[in-house]
Write a structure and sequence with these properties.
Strand content: 5-15%
Largest sheet: 2 strands, antiparallel
Structural class: mainly alpha
Helix content: 40-55%
Order of helices and strands: HEEHHHH
Radius of gyration: 28 Å
Number of strands: 2
Strand order of the largest sheet: 1-2
Shape: elongated
Distance between the termini: 66 Å
Amino acid sequence: MSTAITTFGIPPPVPALVPRSMEPANVAPVASSADISKFVRRQREMLWIAGIVIVMSCALRVVGDRVAFAWFPQWPFPEICGARAWLGVTCPGCGLTRSFVYLAHGHWLAAYHCHRLGWLLAL
């Protein structure tokens, strides 16, 4: 008797012809080492970006409606938001930088007034 024949003489299905609905739903795919290294590298990049944002928020000060380095308040950064600079309208992200700077310096109410979701995004 052949080893390819199973119970009742029915041959096993060919794997390429098995419909996706018959595959087990609770089996998670196994991650390869390349996938894991990509994940770890991405996590490290996000950690570095978060650290830079924290350091820059502590090094900046709000001067009027703009942001400048604490040691050069007379030279504020230019407006970066294109919608605000070119069209004169505020976009959903306008005020986030000032909100982060105020949060870094402990001015919670001023941060809330600059952008209502700044404190939530800073978490």
